[in-house]
Automatic annotation (TrEMBL):
The gene is hldD. SUPFAM superfamilies: NAD(P)-binding Rossmann-fold domains. The keyword Isomerase applies. Residues 25-215 form the NAD-dependent epimerase/dehydratase domain. This is ADP-L-glycero-D-manno-heptose-6-epimerase. The keyword Glycoprotein does not apply. It comes from Hymenobacter glacieicola. Keywords: Carbohydrate metabolism, Isomerase, NADP. It holds the Pfam family Epimerase. It comes from the Bacteria.
């Protein structure tokens, strides 16, 4: 496993896991030079994922330059690579949510984080040298166990669980778009267990390189999500609203929905977990028993 291991919150996620070796991200490429014959496949999922990050130098180092170095190393040693892109690349969604490569140069993300991910996607598809197999996964709103170190960027489900446990209520962002009522903002929420299944599929099916959406293909409202969290806790719903923070208000996505036809076209045929079922599993089998930091 490769990461920055200075965060105790991250280390807590590894409790009970079996790992062969820890490698600091700053030392990884030197380590790979010496051990590449032991590596069969690389999942590069690390990034600065804070959508409020405005320091482009940080995003360039972690989300762009590091990913380029990873790509080139995989080319050098002919290693298959799956890396994390993001639905943030789609911006306001005016061009839809198709993962067609032809749309990549036309996308206009709403924040520097999305720009950094889109910059790498565009760079990757233009490279003459490519890994033995590669896939960039445009993650939509992923939720589930082991997101506890993310703080503000953790899923609304985790925030809802904590608020409901502490106060008996949940506060959502008010809509500042006249096309959406409060709580009716819609996102494509995908359970992390489904993300793992797709990664395993690509591990064993390496014939079709490219960029792929990874959502469910069905947008759901934040009210749906919050009501499902109350239901999983067997609590009566008490939902309130507050203004969306000003630092994200102008770059807030009111609707996302993955076009999943490309992933389906290469043979991925497993159903995606319904939001209600995913939340029930997450809350009842992980959060309530206290399996979190």
């Amino acid at each position: 496993m490769v990461d920055n291991f200075t965060s105790e919150r991250k280390l807590a996620n590894l409790t009970g896991k079996r790992l062969r070796e820890y490698v600091d991200r700053e030392e990884f490429f030197e380590w790979l030079d010496a051990h590449h014959q032991q590596v069969e496949f690389i999942f590069h999922l690390g990034a600065r994922t804070d959508t409020t990050e405005q320091n482009r130098d940080v995003l360039n180092v972690l989300n762009l330059d590091y990913s380029k170095q990873m790509w080139l190393a995989c080319c050098q040693y002919q290693l298959p690579l799956v890396y994390a892109s993001s639905a943030a690349t789609y911006g306001s969604g005016t061009l839809g949510y198709s993962d067609d490569d032809a749309l990549l140069p036309l996308l206009r993300p709403l924040n520097p984080y999305g720009e950094s991910k889109n910059d790498f996607d565009n760079w990757a598809v233009q490279q003459p040298a490519k890994p033995l197999f590669w896939a960039g996964l445009k993650f939509f709103n992923v939720y589930g166990p082991n997101e506890y170190h993310k703080g503000r960027m953790a899923s609304v489900i985790l925030h809802a669980f904590r608020q409901i446990q502490d106060t008996g209520s949940m506060t959502l962002f008010r809509s500042h778009n006249p096309e959406y009522a409060d709580g009716e903002q819609q996102r494509d929420f995908v359970y992390v267990k489904d993300v793992v299944e797709v990664c395993f599929f690509l591990l064993h099916n390496r014939r079709n390189s490219g960029i792929y959406n990874l959502g469910t293909g069905e947008a759901r409202t934040f009210l749906d999500l919050t009501l499902s969290t109350f239901a999983a806790l067997d609590r009566t719903a008490d939902i309130r609203f507050r203004d969306t923070p000003e630092d994200i208000r102008d770059t807030y996505q009111y609707f996302t929905q993955a076009d999943m036809s490309k992933l389906r076209s290469i043979g991925y045929d497993r159903p995606f977990t319904r939001l209600e079922d995913g939340i029930s599993d997450y809350v009842r089998n992980y959060l309530v028993p206290g399996q979190y930091y």
